[in-house]
Amino acid sequence: MAPLRQHDMLLRSATTEEIEAVWEERWYGLVVGLSTVLVASDVEGLALVDYHDQIVGLVTYHVDGPAGQIVTLDTMLRGRGFGRYLLEVVENKFHTRGLGKAWALMTNDNLRAAGLYLSRGYRLVRVHLNAVDRVREHKPMLPERGYEGIPIRDLWEFEKMGPLGIPVP
What we know:
Layout: E1 10-13, H1 16-26, E2 31-32, E3 37-38, E4 44-49, E5 55-64, E6 67-75, H2 82-96, E7 101-107, H3 111-119, E8 123-128, H4 132-138, E9 155-161
Parallel strand pairs: 6-7
Antiparallel strand pairs: 1-4, 2-3, 4-5, 5-6, 7-9, 8-9
């Protein structure tokens, strides 16, 4: 079978049940922010699916006033550009809604994701030292170490001010 490529995929809205399933598998069922705890029904999502309608990528987001938060960005197959594509799509959605800011939080070990956001024009605007302690109150099973054995301690906040959805050269 040939490898899956972006043009083999279909983008569609994700159901709450699909978001729940991905979050259960990858996020311990919920997403803990700086002052929020989100469950699947709190967010909207876009699913990138293959020709069998299997999810190969999912981006979830929450709109609050003039800003859109990218809550989660998951790809089941790495290195195919699916994450970059989903990020661009959600930025375009924010742009069509008239939002002037997109933002995301991630743990300090997620260097690959940080690189993706930086390459799309996001800026690291805040480092919330020891914020993962609060996350662990809701997710005690969160490991002490993450990617590359990096201790998971802090939350990094990235933001991109408009215009959103325009590719960065």
